[in-house]
Amino acid sequence: MGIPFRFIQCGDLHLGAPFRYLKSFGRSLDEAMMRATYGSFQNIVNLAIRQRVAAVLITGDVYDGAEHPLEAEMHFVRGCESLDKEHIAVYIVQGNHDPAESWKRHMPLPKNVHIFSSERVERVPLLVRGQEVAAIYGRSISSSIQYDDLTSDIHPLQSDPFSIALVHGTVGSHEGHDRTGPCSVDALRSIPIQYWAFGHIHKRQILSENPHIVYAGNSQGLHRGENGPKGCYVVDVSSRGTIEARFHETNVIRFAEETIDLGQVQSVLDMQEMLRHKKEMLRKPGISMLLSIRLTGQGPLLDIVRDAKVRAAWMEESQAEESGKHGVYIIDINCESLEASSPGIAPGMVRDYVQALDAMHTGIESLEAIVKGRPEWKRLGSYSRLVTDTMLQSAYDRARGEGIHLLQGNDHED
Asked: Are 76 and 220 found together in one domain?
């Protein structure tokens, strides 16, 4: 019989990371967005103290990049010092965003923090009331070993009262993620570790419960693609070694997505009321919501909602209804799902058109290459420096929308 203990698993803090694809929503919310990653880490610290955990396990990417700002370092060190005062240990593996060689710290970390070596797997005991309750294994990422399987060299001792491994890596395949530290569920099951704490993938998920293979996800969403609650797991290990992992939301700002069926909307007033209803359903004390609305179906407003200026006006009116930094802000009203909904047009034409455009546009660099390859670009001369990425993206979005609209047909054409 062992001693029961509790720990927090978190990771991908990305301290100092900016939000992407967002416009200004007023000074108070803009400042909150800039500091959201700091606030989410402070929420983890506060949760650890309230839950009286033995340790906080951080599975990589404490910082957003090797050249992280000193302010990010200050917030991290301050949080670790708060945990030190409560005798809470902090164990860290470094990730691909902040590999071992990039941690040239200006501020010393307190004695409760252990950073695992990138040169070899380390074993560190987790102590509760002076007794070892678990062994923690880990190896940090360095640029030279980023694509190695870091789990294959983990060999726990048979005498371990309980075994935990910290890894920053990819279990299986995850579309859109760099395959850092690749490994498989089957390979992990062949290693007698009882709890695998993984970082790198921002989606929260428990891949296995025998043994536990857990991604806590990131603690704060950074763009609209990372919607829903973000946070950490509080993990209880009983005296018999049974495990209970409970998710806790720590994000300061949450991205959300909702759908409105145009078949249920008969007028502009109905639309405005529907937008208000969607906001009220999401409103939560202490958290700002950045809401994307996706329009589907057909109805009397079908032609109206295709007008970008109309949608922009609805968003401005909705944002003006909010006060303070803890509101629900609509950041996008998207009608792309209406592309193939009009009668009289073969859906495949619109789909093929959109797929061809998206294949061509793989990023702002691809737009720049297309524009700079045009003979008109040379005629701009020195004025070409006035063409910004925002202008290029806006022009592309307008052209894309107009092409879709023409393919769908216009009932009001002469």
From this structure: yes
Dig out the tokens for 217 from the structure: 């996800």
Cα 131 to the chain's mean position, in Å?
Answer: 37
Residues 305 and 191 in one domain: no
Beta bridge partners of 15: 63
**Predicted confidence (pLDDT) at residue 176 exceeds the cutoff of 70:** no
Residues 202, 85 share a domain: yes
Looking at residue 290, its amino acid is L
Contacts of 230 (CB under 8 A, 6+ apart): 40, 204, 217, 218, 219, 220, 221, 249, 250, 251, 254
CB atoms within 10 A of CB 205: 13
Of 224, 249, 274, at which residue does a domain stop?
A: 249
Under 8 Å between Cβ of 95 and 47: no
Tens digit of each residue's pLDDT (9 = 90 or more) over 259-309: 999 999 999 999 999 999 999 999 998 899 999 999 998 889 988 998 989
Q: Domain limits at 317?
A: 254-338
Residue 4: phi, psi to the nearest 5? -65, 150
Min mean pLDDT across 44-58, 277-291, 364-378, 390-404 is at 390-404
Is residue 349 included in any domain, yes or no? no
Separation CA 224–CA 202 (nearest Å): 13
- Clarify whether residues 115 and 263 are in a common domain: no
Tens-digit pLDDT profile for residues 43-52:
999 999 999 9
